[in-house]
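Hi everyone,

Forwarding the result from last night's run.
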Amino acid sequence: MVAVVGYTNAGKSTLLNAIANADVVAEDQLFATLDPTTRRVKMPSDRLALFSDTVGFIQKLPTMLVAAFRSTLEEVNEADLLVHVVDISHANMEEQIAAVEEILDDLGASTKPVVVALNKIDRLDRTDPEDAHLLEQALSDNPNAVLISAANGTGLDRLMAAVDEALREQMMSIDALIPYKRGDLVAMLHENGLVEAETHTEHGTHVVGRLPLELVGRLAPYWTANQQSEET
């Protein structure tokens, strides 16, 4: 699960529309997204991920307003990864980043892995010294960030690759021999994990790969000796 977060009007809904062929309201106004919108997205590794749009943050968001939006922001706490969309063309970009980070801290989500997407690069002129300096500074402050334009699709392939890799890092290596009668577990692994090797044996399907931590326990009864030795 991936939660798309960011300051209001940073381009979160436009990004979700672009990567998921969704039809999410994307307007230049406060709180255009009040109800969470979730879409299934096929990643470069062919895995599926759930991307959720969230309400746009603002500076000094009142505590009672955070409480009112709590249900909308539940996706943030439930997510395995956050994509922080930043409007790189905004004059107050740094303040907006700080505001988002503060609210994430208030929500108890400040320790979650984050991929930063520096959006709206189509609004900058790299031949202009001021814009070139802005880009250089933004990348210096966010060395692992990805430059994108959700509006025209620039950099979205690199962003999805970065998200895919970050999700992979949240997974655990697995080595299991799954009985043929539990084909549902093999399907679950293909849909939610990363299958690196799969062979059919006399006793079942031998799979080697990676799986999100919260799903690993479902395969525990079928660990091979290799998996058990790794755990010990």
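Residues 24-35 have pLDDT under 50 and may be disordered.

Cheers,
N.
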